[in-house]
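Morning, I've got a small favour to ask if you have a moment. I've been staring at a protein lately and its backbone has me curious. You're getting the sequence in one-letter code plus the fold written as tokens. I've dropped the whole record in just underneath, so have a look:
=====
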Amino acid sequence: MKQLLYPQEVEVYYILPTIRKHLAEALKKRGMPQARIAELLNIQAAAVSQYMSNKRGSQITLKDDIINEIHGAAQRITSTFDVLRETQGILQKIRETGGLCDIHKQFFNAPDNCTPDEVGCNTGGTCYGPAPRICH
């Protein structure tokens, strides 16, 4: 039986590792050494190696437009702050385009009435109270 995970858990356990994998690959393609990639992504060099060999970050498949967005983001990354900003933008796009819901429903026991508008996971902030939502 599929378990129930919060959308945030789906992001942390499945989406973020996949984004990191694609960022690492794109940065490597730019000629960046693995040690620098690890430093920028704030991960161990061994994790970069695992991303490159598909041992990590390969449990889900992102849509082509999101992968293209990640490759564009990699061109703009020169600092850890850039990684943070670009990752947040990619996560927001995944939420806005329904990708988070698609992954959530595909792999986990999301309730039938689980929609981005009802749950509030199409926003980047925390939402409180019944609809209309007040988001921060």
Residues 7-135 form one domain. Confidence is low (pLDDT under 50) at residues 125-136.
